[in-house]
Amino acid sequence: MTPKRKQRLVIVLAILVGVSVAVGLALFALSQNINLFYSPTQIAQGEAPRDTRIRAGGMVVEGSVLRASDSLQVRFELTDYAETVPVEFTGILPDLFREGQGIVAQGSLDNQGVFQAVEVLAKHDENYMPPEVAEALQASGKMPQPEAEVFNK
Amino acid sequence: MPRWFYQLASPRWCYGITGKLLPVFAVLAAVLLLGGTVWALLFAPADYQQGNSFRIIYIHVPSAILAQSCYMLMAIAGAIGLIWKMKVADMVAKSCAPIGASMALLALATGAIWGKPTWGSWWVWDARLTSMLILLFLYFGIMALHAAIEDATTAAQSTAVLALVGLVNIPIIKYSVEWWNTLHQPATFKLTERPAMPAEMWLPLLVMVLGFYCFFAVSLMLRLRHEILARERRAGWVRELVECR
């Protein structure tokens, strides 16, 4: 390599390193703001602000979904297997909503610590399988369970 | 440096070798994409939760992978052009941008179409979706910068620097689902673990990914050959080529 080329190589590497460090520091400083949602643990520990619009993400606790008989109101609990947060929502839930499913709800915390959701999105996990396989796994109790860390980073 | 590296620097040699490789990759792309599509849509099993709507991954995943691979190739070619002043590398970098942009657009569009029934929303500002949108804007910026600068050498240098700066976005896209809470699911395929998907589902996906790569090679070579002829139009060998026709 000629000295001229070596010099240009150093400049290119310097650009790469410099930009990576700058962006790395910026992302580190913003790390809380980049999270799409708060986990139930963060909400229980008071990290999530009250009286402002936030998102909460977690698994719908099995057997916790209560539907009102005369309206679209639904109440359920959200967990990351460490803490749980009660959620209330009035409206149409996405097709994938079910007990044991990961969801992300947008809304705010009221004074009783209940999350009043205005929008519920289903969070799909990375597991795909044919229905027959899912049935077989369900029957033998070997269905892959999402890990807590999916909702708590 | 091996001999082929120096040969790559010759536009004439590149024009010749791409002319020979083009039909091979075109046939491969056609066979893989056609076979992969039929396999994916007709024979792969439906998902237990999403039903048939999951089949969009057979377009979504390959286009997203390719959008990122194409960006890396563009940045590496740009760096080679900057350091060794290699004209062919500049031309490769320039040819990459529109292909990568269309792949990024395809990934975003298919993702939105899948997101509506699955998540309940067309678009969410989570880290994965946003960083992918930034990738699309980087491609647009690079194409605009190329169009704005008349002198080919200056244009190549400026876009190469922009491409290198934007390269930092690639690991952010990859690891966004691991570093932050996102709505987008984490990777199904990891190097160290078994895929979270049975073989009858991921085999057609693999075929589609390979097919997309072959298609990318074909469109890149077509653009590159066009670029070589346009840039070398005053060279003796191009004139001979035109006169022979």
Automatic annotation (TrEMBL), chain A:
Q: Which SUPFAM superfamilies match?
A: Heme chaperone CcmE
Q: Which Gene3D superfamilies match?
A: Nucleic acid-binding proteins (2.40.50.140)
* Cross-referenced NCBIfam families: PRK13165.1 (NF009638), PRK13254.1-1 (NF009727), PRK13254.1-3 (NF009729), PRK13254.1-5 (NF009731)
Q: Does the keyword ATP-binding apply?
A: no
| Extracellular domain ranges by topology | 30-153
Q: Name one GO biological process term.
A: cytochrome complex assembly
Q: Which gene encodes it?
A: ccmE
What is the name attached to this protein's record? Cytochrome c-type biogenesis protein CcmE
Q: Which GO terms describe its molecular function?
A: heme binding; metal ion binding
Q: How does it sit in the membrane?
A: Single-pass type II membrane protein
Which residue ranges does UniProt annotate as crossing the membrane? 9-30
**Which cellular component, as a GO term, is one annotated location?**
plasma membrane
